[in-house]
Structures are given as structure tokens and as C-alpha cells.
Amino acid sequence: YKFFAVAMLLFFLQIVAGIVTVHDFVGFTTFFGYDFSRVLPITITRSWHVQLAVLWIATCWIAGSLFLLTRISPLEPKGQVRLINLLFALLATVVAGVLVGGALGPHGLLGEWWRWLGNQGWEFVELGKLFQWILFGALGLWCLIMFRGLRPALRAASPFALPNWMLYAVLTITLLFGSGFVAGARTNFVIADFWRWCVIHMWAECFFEVFTTVIIAYFMVMMGLISRDSANRVVFIATILFLGSGLLGISHNFYWNAKPEPMLAIGSVFSTMQVIPLILLTLEAWKFRNLPGSALRESGEKGGLAQFGLSEAFLFLMAVNFWNFMGAGVFGFIINLPIVNYYEHGTYLTVNHGHAALMGVYGNLSIAAVLFCGRLMIRAERWNAPLVRVSFWSLNIGLALMVVLDTLPAGILQFMAVLEGGMVYARSQAFIEGSTFQTLTWMRAVGGVMFFLGGVTPLAWFALSRMGSLKEAVEKLPEQRPIYDEIAGGIEHEPAAPSPLDLQPALRK
Q: CATH assignment of 2-507?
């Protein structure tokens, strides 16, 4: 649970860094007569905002996958807890490097060690080289932990069973992160930018999408909402579609690193096609919304989502489907059309797509993991469903308002400025300080206040305040019906713990 608690704290800090960053855009950096931008310039706060987003989301996914191990294979390997605690320590070290090194480096306080302990200078891959290696080691340790935990299920399962898919996703996420080590301080920009995009696009977009599909499938199986075979089919098809469009789609980012024009065309076309699997998944989501009621009826209970014991986690999973279509699909589609991509590259339309997709899809999924696992770890009397629901609506309505009132119209405005005055003008300080752009930026506060005060703050408080309200750990899981037949392909084994579906009457109030 400590992984989830720290992740929610990082979520809070990430949004605070984002608030400070956007204040710089409107020139509102003085509080009580002190200009905080002298200590925390936009280069630092923006770096924190971007890097902490990846870290808190990754921490939630790591913790969620570790929690699933106890449900997939009830036999815990010897020394597993020590490895998990070591993993937590490594991730905490990386966070310290982001916060401290990321602040000292731009101020010139690290001397010749700036590249190792501070900021490497590559956008979205700013993490100091030392902490980058530590993070790579943490991901490798995550692979080892997952392999040790999944090994009993891997022996008899088919190559395309859910445990195998989870291991494949974890392994590829770790390996693809290695592409961030190619670029050095003196690496030619063309080479460095290619490998930088391998981290941003291939690592964060392509293989993370596969992992999200696997995790959602596991949650659905454990809730008793879909069968193992259905989950396997969805993951298999989604992987083909995501990788098929994503592997070639990466080249739509190569506008500034001397790649030939055919590569740009191929990349734009296949990136545009990435909306196809998202549309297919969204169509499935319409069926998906009625699953809690169906599960309750099959178990002899009456009711729908309100009576479903894991309804808060299910709400966030529903939001994943919506933003997968709107943020990653629609907003990604409109900027990846070849002729549009040529002019919009580097404008606020990309910012709009990034915020809607990263927070809408990965953020909601990460919070769903916190709530799914937390619901089974926190004592029932300490669960606060109304607070979590308020947080859900505040986060998603607030995000939608920020998109509608600022990032989307500002992106369209900047796109038109590129057509009329060129890229240099559209990205100039003169354009950013223009009255229309400034007004749109101020309007972001409408959704931002709701997002932060109604969503982020109570959710972070809830997660941190429940650390002392966890259920007692047991040495041996209670003997109930086996779940390997649902998750790992029908393996003969000792009976495992009850699935969350078995626990529904106890969890429901």
C-alpha cells in the first residue's frame, strides 16, 4: 500500500508544479511581494510536472501488478518481500533525484555533475543520468519480481494467456526504456532525437498501451465481469492493433531530425490509424458499462453500479474508455493527419492531446488501480465512497473543462497563427502574451480549480490517511474456490484466495 500512498502524494506534487508552471504563462509569479520564479523558474517546474506524471503513474502500475501476483499465484517466493522493499527504495531515490537534482541543475549548483545528478537537457528525458540508471535498475527488478511471482502460472499456461501477456508487457517496458541511454551530451542531434522519441512514443505510448489493456483485463476477470477467454482475445487483438499502428507511427515525430519525407508520411498515416483500435475498444465500453449489474444478477443479487462493491474503481475504468477514445483517439487523430501534422507540430494542439490522453487514460487507470487494490486492503468501515466519487467527477469534469476552455481553443488559435505567420511567430513570446491566448490560459482556472481542489487534494488525503487503516496481513490465504481456472488457464493447484466477486456481499454497504 505504501506504493499507492506515495504515488498519490506525487500526483499532488505534480499538479502543484503544473499550477506554478501555468502561472508563469500569464506572468502571475509574485505572491506577497516575492517573485517565486527566481527560485523555481518554469524550466524547473515544467520538468517536475512532466517527470512526476510518469513516476506516479508508473508507481501505481507497478504496485497494481504486484498486488495481482497474490491473486494469480498464492505461493509467495522466498525473499519476495525484501525485493519489493528494495524496489520501493529505488523508486524513492529516483523521486528524490527528480525533485532535488532537477532543481539544482538549472541553477548551476552541480557544476560538472549537472548531467549525472541534474537535468540532461533532453525534453521529456530530463532525468539525470545516474537516476536514469537507478530507474532502469528498478524496472529490471520489477521484471524479476513479476517473473518469480508468475512462474507457477507460466508453466502450464499458453503463450497468450494473461500471465504471459503481463510478463511480456513488463519486459518490453523495461527494454524500451534502454533507448533513453543512447543520447549523450555530445551525441549528434539527429541520432539523439530519434532515440529520445523511442522513449516518448514507443515506450510511453505503444507498449504502455499494451500494459494498460492487460491490467484492465485482469481487473475485469478478478471482478468476475468477463471470462478468461474473453480477456485473452481482447488483449491479443488490442496488442496487434496498437503495435501494428504504433511501430510505424513513431516516424510522424521526426520533423526536426533529418528523416526522409516518405518516413514522415508513413508515420502520419499509421499514427492516424491508431484511432481504429480505440474506436473498437470504445464500442466494447458501451457493453462494459452494464457489466456490474450483470455480475450481480448472476450471483443472485439485485442492483447495478451503486450496489457493486468495487463501483468506485469501475467508474475510473469507465473514464479510461472515454478518454481513450476522446483524448488519445479523437485529439490524436486531428493532429496526426499528414497535412495537419506538418503545421501543428509543436503547438498547443499537441499539449491538448497530451493532457487528455495522459491524465485521461493513464491517470484514470492508475487511480483505478489504487482504488481496486485499496478497496481490498483498507478496512471496510474506513472506506469513504462519497469522497472518492466526488473526486472522480471533479477530476474528469475539471479535465474536460480545461480542454474545452483552454488547451483545445488555444491549440486551434496557435495552429492558425502558424498558417498565417509561421512557426517562429506562433511560438514566440509575442504570441503567448497576446490577449486572446492569455484569456484562454486564465480560463483554464475554471476546470483547474475543480480538478485540484475537488479531485486531486481529497484523493491524496484519502490515500495517505488510510495507511493506518489497513487490514491485517495473513500468513495463509483462506481456502476458497480456485481462481487459476479464470486467470491462468486451468492449472491444478492448491485453492487460492477468494476473488473479489466472492467478496461482493461483504464489501457492499
A: 1.20.210.10
